[in-house]
Amino acid sequence: MDDRLQQLAKRLSGATRVTVMTGAGVSAASGVPTFRGPHGLWRSFRPEDLATPHAFARDPRMVWEWYDWRRSQLAACEPNAAHDVLARWSAHPGFTLITQNVDGLHERAGTRDVIRFHGSIWELQCAEECRGSGSGWEDRTAHLDPLPPRCPPCGGLAGPGVVWFGEAIDPAVLARCERALACDVFLSIGTSSIVYPAAGLVHAAKRLGAFTAEINPEATEAAGDLNLAIAMPAEDVLPQILGSVTSSCD
Ligand code: OAD
């Protein structure tokens, strides 16, 4: 095993609390496009046209066509080896998984209690009368009909249950993350680490004393501040260190 992997495995096996933050790269091997990079979604689409409250107010149908297209792509994707390892680790009490991904692949792999930092593409929420009442609902249909969908109780427009640029993170989600920062190892996997506040979590964990590591084939700007950077794909690294968390968090 590579020296860096050994170092991470050793840290994990000595840890009682482990927190993992994932980004789009963890789903890349499942065929889900990332946002940035040569084939990233934001190369072909402008976030300001599709992923802001203003874009939705201006053209809800266009926004929904894009989300509907992504839902149909995701419906055909399966969790990969990285999701599977994280699902196994989630069976241990000291383990927390935070994800920026809205794709639902961690849950499909069997991960328990996922903290969804940016929401879920499989949830819908009222954008009109019931907004803010916490009345989101799940709908896993690959193609929604009608488009844009309507809120069942009030008949108003419904939006995707995701966090858009310029929107605040749910305070309950932030509170759960805050608790997970007090850990022995904080592992950041498959994220470009540039979208805040998500990108700030690994640095906050380090300030609180966690050993911090990144798994990403391309070292990010955050890597310089972390204890360890492993420049390999998540689906290659995680199966090699699968056993490290098994006994430690129990
Ligand atoms: P990005 O697309 O910004 O970054 C994906 C990262 O994954 C890149 O740094 C890649 O190098 C890395 N990567 C690619 N393949 C990988 C692999 N096999 N194993 C490990 N890493 C790999 O995606 P995020 O950082 O998740 O926001 O983006 C953050 C947020 O920006 C998203 O949650 C989304 C987007 O706009 C919202 O939806 C609000």
Describe the structure.
With 250 residues, the protein is α/β, with parallel strands linked by helices. Helices cover 33% and strands 16% of the residues. Strands 3-2-1-7-8-9 form a six-stranded parallel beta sheet, with helices on both faces. Helix 6 (81-89) crosses helix 10. The chain starts with a helix and ends with a helix.
Helix content: 25-40%
As a percent range, the share of strand residues is: 15-25%
The global form is globular
Individual helix count: 11
CATH architecture of the largest domain: 3-Layer(aba) Sandwich
Rg result: 18 Å
Number of domains: 2
- Given helix and strand content, the structural type is alpha/beta
In CATH, what is the class of the largest domain?
Alpha Beta
Distance between the termini: 25 Å
Bound molecules: 2'-O-acetyl adenosine-5-diphosphoribose
Mean pLDDT: 94
Question: How would you concisely characterize the structure shown here?
Answer:
The chain has 250 residues and is of the alpha/beta class. It has a 6-stranded parallel beta sheet, sandwiched between helices. A 3-stranded antiparallel beta sheet has the order 5-4-6, covered by helices on one side. α9 links the parallel β7 and β8.
Task: Chart the SSEs and their pairings.
Blueprint: H1 3-13, E1 18-22, H2 41-44, H3 47-50, H4 53-58, H5 60-75, H6 81-89, E2 95-99, H7 105-109, E3 115-116, E4 119-126, E5 137-138, E6 158-162, H8 171-180, E7 185-189, H9 201-207, E8 211-215, E9 228-230, H10 234-240, H11 243-246
Parallel strand pairs: 1-2, 1-7, 2-3, 7-8, 8-9
Antiparallel strand pairs: 4-5, 4-6
Bound molecules: 2'-O-acetyl adenosine-5-diphosphoribose.
The site of 2'-O-acetyl adenosine-5-diphosphoribose has 27 residues, from α10.
